[in-house]
């Protein structure tokens, strides 16, 4: 009750920040998690879309089960779309430097587009947006590895989303 | 100046107790008549960074009102292990509530 009230106050009058952070540049960044999360968004979108009723007027038990399934799938879809945004924000804020933006001028638009697609994937049941989200994240992954002088390759995953993932190319 | 002040937490060094994005209320009068104790979660001025506040846990009380403060999530925290002890004048208050 108090928490809800305080959060409401925060929305009206945003509080200042207090930092519980680590400012050690650990140098550990990887676009892998963002890609896996984007795969999950595709999978959840497809699973929701594939749900079908057994008849035109399913009984109450079936309706309850379907509502429960949709709720769970939607929660995971939104959580992972947010995870994509979180991971990309870290790369954008902590890793990509102005020199990289100069070298890859489309990076800014790419990040911006990824954020928009992740939001659309959260808000709607849009298969195209989810697929585009993965593509956009893959492009960021390719740029990321290029900035490290590492070649990449797209490999087929074994995930049920049946899509690819960008990984560093193995060298002999 | 209000005795209780709201803040939103940024960063992960106080996890799992306080997560990023949670709100906290800091009691700025908590140490008016007493001193910070071990395990208190305190708000403090970030050493050498003006106008930046940190949220840390008191790990050790040294002599002369000096304190060692650390994050709960020690693998992801910048604290006394990096910037050394902090003095009582830099400790602004104690956490009163998280939400």
Outline the low-pLDDT stretches of chain A. Answer: none
Overall mean confidence score, pLDDT of chain A = 91
Q: Which fold does the CATH topology of chain A refer to? A: Four Helix Bundle (Hemerythrin (Met), subunit A)
CATH fold-level label of chain B: Umud Fragment, subunit A
Fraction in beta strands of chain A: 5-15%
Order of helices and strands of chain B: EEEEEHEE
Rounded Rg of chain B: 12 Å
Poorly predicted runs of chain B are: none
Q: How many domain modules of chain A?
A: 1
CATH hierarchy, class of chain A: Mainly Alpha
What's the CATH architecture of chain B? Ribbon
CATH superfamily of chain B: Umud Fragment, subunit A
Organism (chain A): Candidatus Woykebacteria bacterium RBG_16_39_9b
Pfam family, one (chain A): Sod_Ni
Protein name (chain A): Superoxide dismutase, Ni
InterPro entries (chain A): NiSOD_sf, Superoxide_dismutase_Ni-type
Descriptive tags:
A: 172 residues; mainly alpha; Four Helix Bundle (Hemerythrin (Met), subunit A); 6 helices; B: 99 residues; mainly beta; 7-stranded antiparallel β-sheet; 7 strands; 4% helix; 41% strand; globular; Superoxide_dismutase_Ni-type (chain A)
